[in-house]
Each structure stands twice: as structure tokens, then as C-alpha cells.
Amino acid sequence: MTTLQATRLVIGRELRAKLRDKAFIFSTVSFLVILVASIAIPAMLESGPTKVAVTDSTYVEALQRAGLEVQQVSDPAAAEQLVRDGDVEAAVVAGPTVVALEDSPDEVVEALSTSPPVQLLDAPPFDPALTIFVPLLLAMLCYITSLLFGLQIAQSVVEEKQTRIVEILVASIPTRALLAGKVVAMTLLAFAQIALLAVIALVGTTVTDLDAGLLDALRPTLGWFLPFFVLGFIMLAAIWAGTGALAARQEDLGSTSGTVQMVVLIPFFAVLFLRDNAAALQFLSYFPFSSPMAMPIRIFQGDAAGWEPFVALAILAGTAVLLLAVGARIYEGSLLRTNTRTSMATAWRSRSTVS
Amino acid sequence: MTTVLNVDAVNRSFGDRQVLKDVSFAVESGRLTGFVGANGAGKTTTMRIILGVLAADTGTVTWRGAPMTRAVRSRFGYMPEERGLYPKMAVADQVVYLGRLHGLSTADAKRNTAALLDRLELGERAGDPVEKLSLGNQQRAQIAAALVHDPELLVLDEPFSGLDPLAVDTVVAVLRERAAAGAAVLFSSHQLEVVERLCDDLAIIAEGTIRAAGSRTYLREQYALPRYSVEVGADAGWLRDEPGVTLVELDGPRAVIDLDPATDDQQVLRAALARGPVRAFGPVRPSLAEIFREVIQ
Questions:
Q1: Rounded to an integer, what distance in angstroms lies between the CA atom of residue B172 and that of residue B185?
Q2: Do both A97 and A7 map to the same domain?
Q3: Which positions ≥6 away from B179 have C-beta within 8 Å?
Q4: Residue A198 class from Cβ within 10 Å (0-12 exposed, 13-18 middle, 19+ buried)?
Q5: How far is residue B24 CA from its own chain's centroid?
Q6: What angle (nearest 5°) sits at the alpha carbon of residue B186, between those of residues B184 and B191?
Q7: For chain A, how many structural domains are there in total?
Q8: Order of all β-strands in the sheet with B227-232
Q9: Are residues A170 and A236 in the same domain?
Q10: Could you give the angle at which helices B91-101 and A3-19 cross, rounded to 10 degrees?
């Protein structure tokens, strides 16, 4: 049994255990439902074309050109009645006068007015509201997923400690294989979930007919987001495992995982609040703990030069290697101390106890 | 029956506390070796060092004369004192998984698991998650987990604690089968009667040092008191006045006596025969509990 074979077996068990875990399935499914709903509901809420009642046939053509549904009626009283009944949103009677119930129907007014042509020199490729919404959604997704799956790693480590099976496992296979198996399995699951959400987002936005400009910006963003996310997740995975190993019981996790939770939380809020500050965002897009959230935003906004994501990714990978070593040492140093919480310092020093 | 496992001058400290002091003993294949000592004497630490879960500060553990390696240890089976399996995983899945971790193919692991669970009378619960089993059945599952890969050395830390008498019998029978098939079995216990009934060899540990080790017969001879039980035709009260004899117990014609070192047992026997018929005359073998009490002082 080589370390690699052992790792593969551990991966297999972790995956099977998670895929049968009802809480895990529930959280994944609810994530999907929220995403699908957030795409589908706005599309469904867009009711059909505005209906207009018209008494004078001379306006029909102009209204139809504006994409309105026109209904011809004989006299103003009938038109007014239709408006009151809510069968049409507005009526156009001789004059022309636009009749409506509560709000001035801008669409109808615009169709009947002449406005000068407008020429934009720097037109945004898509609705500016989306420039806030999309990056926020990505950062949020990154934050929630790494927290959720990171905690899962820690929990699965504590479970083995708390149930004491860890001693049999350590007597059977190298500790590294156990750690690597957990990290790989959970990274696979986290990636699968993110990739699934990304695919649904892409398909969903294509189907619901968003503007082409948005899709052109979204595709490279998601394309870069995935590697950033995976590396960012792996970077912290061993630390999560280490914090799990420091705990003796699930109840200890809250305190032992505090530091790593902050490492996820603080960059998220930094990105959230500093995203309009170009210099700050640029720094955050290189800083390894925030680059998985910040760099995709810059790519989406078209601010990042072609080489920039590569450099940020390299920094991220380097940090990941470093933190994997740190996490592994903490993990190995505290794994067999099953009776009480282990301090970080003790774990760091006592690695030599496990052969 | 050859010595397979050799623990040689192993020392281990936790902080300032030295838990093991020059611990040495051997385990032979095909035999059951009992590892006896009070709580905190160092049994679990020794077993963890044999399994490689802990490292020794100094000293060595060898297998068939060669240093331990991962590959060698994968042919060991271990049941730790603190039991544990995945609570939500089915018993059979769990045992198969541990078999796979010890290098069995999936097919072999499944076959061994099925046979073993049947043997341990756990076959019907194979598909149940461990948390649904009674404590006794969880213990059986734990033993299955230690045995699934047909280990050459079985290390069982307090295998009988928490077992009901029927389960003890089942487990004892299974361990004997394994030993008969050539495996070496090392088990710790503080239940001396069970050890007495079961083990071929013994190692007695107290305060981190091995106080006595060897086969049960050897130890009994080694630690035999100069004590004899006698049964004669009439009242045996005359033994009280016999030179070099201390009367320990008297019950009509039956007596238990201790002899002074200089006294010849045959001399006493002849004296008894001179007084009439002798129904029984023989040395009293000490029980394990008596040996244990003597050596740990």
C-alpha cells in the first residue's frame, strides 16, 4: 500500500460519505434552487407587452412600432372603462390625451413623442447595475463555499478524532495520506459545486436572453474564477484540517477554527467595501487570501491586463504550498491528542511523536 | 513457534514523566501473549509504539529480526483501547474499507468481511450503521476491523472490556483460531482470570518496567512458592509439629503447607507415609493473580 493508493482510498470514502450526507445534499440543492430562482424569477416577472386602448386609428402605427399591444375601441368612455377595469394599462384618446390610472405610462408617452437622437461615446456594454451585482455574487459564492467546505474538512477530522477511529487509521496508513485524501475529496466537491453553479449561471443567462455584452464579460470572468477558487480553497484546506485536529470534540471547533474563519471573512469584506477603490482592489487582486474574489472582479470590469491573472495565480499557488506544509504539521502534531484541545504551539512542536 | 516480534530496551517519556523504562519482551507466532499490568503501567504506550502510532525515544522494535517498516506494519491488526469506528457508516462497508487500507483487494476484503462478521455472529447487522448497534456488537465490529486482513500480528488493547460473557467466549475462540493458524497475538488486560484462561505467554509490566516475562508454565515454576497440598488418611494436624514445615491451612485430613528452603519435600512425604496412607501430595502452582501480586511489588 503506497501513500498514493491509500490517499485514493481515503478520497473514495470521503466522497461516498459526503454524497450520502443529507445535510450536504440539502445545502447543495438549496444553493442550486436559489441560483435558478434568481435567474428565472426576474425573467418570469417581466409580463408581456403593455396593453393600450386607442380610439383614434392614427396612433396605432406609432404605438405598435414601440412594441405595445394595441386594442381599438369606439369611444373614449369605453377606453376609460378598460383602463378602470385594468384590462389595459393606458388609453389614447383624441388630442392625443393619454389616460391612465395612477402612474404616467412612460412607454406610451415616449411612443407618441419625438425625442432627439442620442449618441453615447462610451456606452457601457451592459446594464451598469450588473457591474455591481455580478462581482458581488461571485465574491459571495467564493466566500460561502470556502467557508462551508472548509468547515466540512475540519468536521470530518474531528469526527475521526472524537470517535477514536483515527488511531486505527494512523496505524494503517501514513498520516499524510489521510490528510491528502480529505483535502482532495473536499476540493473536488467544492469545485464540482462551484462549476455546477457556474454552468447553470451561464446557461441560465443565455436562455433568459441577457445582453450579449454581459455574456462576453461573464465568460472570461468565470473561466478565471474557477482556477482562482480551486487554488484558494486548497491553500486553506490543510489549515482547516489542522484546526479540526486541534479540536477534541465538535464543540471545540468554534474556537480552534476562529483564525482561519477570519482569514476568509476579512478579505471578503475588504473586497466588498473597497471594490470601488481601484488601487485597493488591485492590491487585493494580488494578495493571496483575497485574489480569488478580487481578481475576477477586475477581469469582469475589464481592468486587468492579460498577464495579471497569471501573476496573481502564481502568488496564490506559492502561498498554497506554504500553507499546506503548515497545516500538515499542525494536523500531524495534534491528531492523536484526543483527550483535550491542543494548542497551536504544542501541535507545532510535537510532530515528532508520530512516526 | 518462533519469536516474531521483539521489543528491545524501549524508553519513552511524555514531558518529564518517563512512561516506559527499558521495556523488553518477545512475542511468538502461533501463541497468545498476555500483556498484564495495572492502569497506567505503560501497556497502551507500548502497544502504540509497536504499531508505530507513537515513536520510541530510544530502543527498537523488530519484526522477524528486521526493523519495522510501513509494509510490515500493514500486516498487523490493531484494536486500540479507545474504540472507534465511523458512526454513520455501515458495519460491513467499514470493515471492507479498513481491509482495503491494509492492502486487500476489494474482492478479498468483501469476502473476508462477510466470513468474519458471520463468525462473530454479526452477519445480520452487516448493513446497519455502527451507531445503531449495541455496545457489545460495536465491540465485535471493532474486532472484525482488526482481523479483516488476516494479520500476522494482532495487537489488542483490552479486547475483553465491555464484552458480555458470551461475547468473551466468541472472541476467545476467534483469537485461538488465529493463533492456531500461525498468527501472533498480543493482548493486554487487567482481568487476570481471562488472561489466565487464555494466554500461553505473559509479560507483566508495572510502572513502566517489565517485571516478568515468559511462558505461563515457566512463570508458574519460577514463582512457585515452596507450597504443597497434602491429603492423608486421618487428621493431618501432626504436620504442625514437623520440622521445617509451616501449616498454612488445615481441614481434617487435608492441609496446605509451606516448606522451609532447607527442607526436603520427599522427607515430609516419607514422614506422612509412615503415619498411614497418603491420598495426595504435590506442589501448589500459584495463580496468575498471585504471581502478579508478587512481581509488581
A1: 11
A2: no
A3: B30, B31, B32, B185, B200
A4: buried
A5: 16
A6: 140
A7: 2
A8: B245-251, B254-259, B227-232, B278-283
A9: yes
A10: 160
Rounded-to-integer distance, Cα B107 and Cα B116, Å:
14
Residue B89 forms contact with A (CB below 8 Å): yes
Q: What domain range includes position A199?
A: 3-42+125-349
Asked whether residue A18 is domain-assigned, the answer is yes
Report the C-alpha gap between B82 and B39 in whole angstroms: 14
The answer to whether A192 and A267 are in contact (CB under 8 A) is no
Q: What is the pLDDT along chain B (297 residues), one digit of tens a residue?
A: 688 999 999 999 888 889 999 999 999 999 999 999 888 889 999 999 999 888 889 999 999 989 888 888 889 999 988 888 898 899 999 999 999 999 999 999 999 999 999 998 888 999 999 999 988 888 889 999 999 999 999 999 988 887 888 888 888 899 999 999 999 999 998 878 888 888 899 999 999 999 989 888 888 888 777 888 889 888 888 888 888 888 888 888 899 888 888 888 888 888 888 888 999 998 888 888 888 888 877
In a domain, A194, yes or no: yes
Please give the residue of chain B at the shortest CA–CA distance from A158.
Answer: B86
Amino acid at A306: G
Query: Do both A291 and A323 map to the same domain?
Result: yes
Query: Nearest to residue B199, comparing CAs of B216, B178, B213, B217?
Result: B216
Together in a domain, A228 and A297: yes
CB contact A339 to B (< 8 Å): no
- Measured between beta carbons, the chain B residues lying within 8 angstroms of A352 are 55
Residues A59 and A38 reside in one and the same domain: no
Q: Is A352 on the interface with B (CB under 8 A)?
A: yes
The ipTM of this complex is 0.81
* Residue A110 maps to a domain: no
- What secondary structure letter does DSSP report for B90? B
Q: Does A355 touch chain B (CB under 8 A)?
A: yes
Number of neighbouring beta carbons within 10 Å of residue A38: 13
CA-CA distance, A304 to A307, in Å (whole number)?
8
Q: pTM for this one?
A: 0.78
How many angstroms from the chain centroid is the CA of residue A111? 40
What is the dihedral angle through the alpha carbons of A85, A86, A87, A93, rounded to the nearest 10 degrees?
80
**Residue A216 and residue A83 share a domain:** no
Q: Are B178 and B185 in contact (CB under 8 A)?
A: yes
Whether residue A168 lies within 8 A of chain B, CB to CB, comes out as: yes
- According to DSSP H, which parts of A113-257 are helical? 128-162, 165-172, 175-207, 212-246, 253-256
**Alpha-carbon torsion (B81, B84, B90, B93), positive or negative:** negative
Do A353 and B54 count as a contact with CB atoms less than 8 A apart? yes
Q: Does A15 touch chain B (CB under 8 A)?
A: no
- B51 interaction partners in chain A (CB closer than 8 Å): 171
Question: In this structure, are residues A269 and A294 in contact, taking their beta carbons and an 8 Å threshold?
Answer: no
In a 3-state reduction of DSSP, which class is residue A271? helix
A160 & A209 share domain = yes
The three grid cell numbers given for residue B137, joined into one nine-digit string: 456488537
User: Containing H/E element for B25?
Assistant: strand B17-28
3-state secondary structure A276-339: CCHHHHHHHCCCCCCHHHHHHHHHHCCCCCCCHHHHHHHHHHHHHHHHHHHHHHHHHHHCCCCC
Which of A172, A175, A178, A346 should be substituted to probe chain B, the one whose Cβ sees the most B Cβ atoms within 10 Å? A172
For residue A231, being part of any structural domain is answered with yes
Residues A235 and A308 in one domain: yes
Interhelix angle A3-19/A128-162, rounded to 10 degrees, is: 110
